[in-house]
Amino acid sequence: MSITDVTHLHEEFDGERLPPGQRETSKFPVLSKGSTPDWNPETWEFSVTGAVEDELTFSWDEFRDLPSETQRQDFHCVTGWSKFDCDFTGVTFTTLAELAGVKDDAVHVMFSALDDYTTNLPLADCMRDEVLFAWDFDGDTLPREHGGPLRVLTPHKYAYKGAKWVDGVEFLTEPKRGYWERRGYSNTANPWNEERYS
Ligand SMILES: Nc1nc2c(c(=O)[nH]1)N[C@H]1C(S)=C(S)[C@@H](COP(=O)(O)O)O[C@H]1N2
Ligand SMILES: [Mo]
């Protein structure tokens, strides 16, 4: 199986592989605002809504049939740890965006999740090949506590920009803030500028 290595993306941000103020860990700590939500593969539904030509819904089987790829990514948590060389398999944001057809007035995106978490990004920060909706981690099913069945990865941002248990993406015509962005974490979250708090 081919793996696309995107662990060099720090070069685009004029930074070292390990962003400032981070320490590398081989562990994979769990950070959730609450407990791990239940999900039912029979009733799980993923929706693409808002400023798109076609709003879409996918069952779990339908989502898994979308074209997928495996990427080697680094993971940067705002609390100070980074984990290198994580292999995630899933569907790219741009694949979904193309299927739905993003309208010209869309400028922003809100992700929603089964635990009522939300997080936001400008559209341009989502339309990047490494923004991934992933269901596998290092060759196995993504563990439930790490966001299984499906989570978002944003290796160019601190990891709170990647919603675990994601079940919806909404295209917006103006910016809006998500769960942590309303509670003091940085709206922009660039690890190489240490944009941790707002
Ligand atoms: N749905 C959801 N996604 C979430 C969170 C959460 O509480 N709920 N926590 C965020 C935070 S603050 C971080 S650092 C990462 C942690 O991912 P991990 O638990 O796999 O390390 O998930 C992010 N995505
Ligand atoms: Mo976090």
UniProtKB/TrEMBL annotation:
Residue ranges annotated as compositionally biased, kind Basic and acidic residues, are 7-17
Known InterPro entries for this protein? OxRdtase_Mopterin-bd_dom (IPR000572), OxRdtase_Mopterin-bd_sf (IPR036374)
In terms of superkingdom, the source organism counts as Archaea
Region feature (Disordered) = 1-36
Q: Which Pfam families match?
A: Oxidored_molyb (PF00174)
Domain Oxidoreductase molybdopterin-binding, by residue range, is 34-180
Q: What is this protein called?
A: DMSO/TMAO reductase YedYZ, molybdopterin-dependent catalytic subunit
**Organism listed in the record:** Haladaptatus litoreus
Q: What is the lineage of its organism?
A: Archaea, Methanobacteriati, Methanobacteriota, Stenosarchaea group, Halobacteria
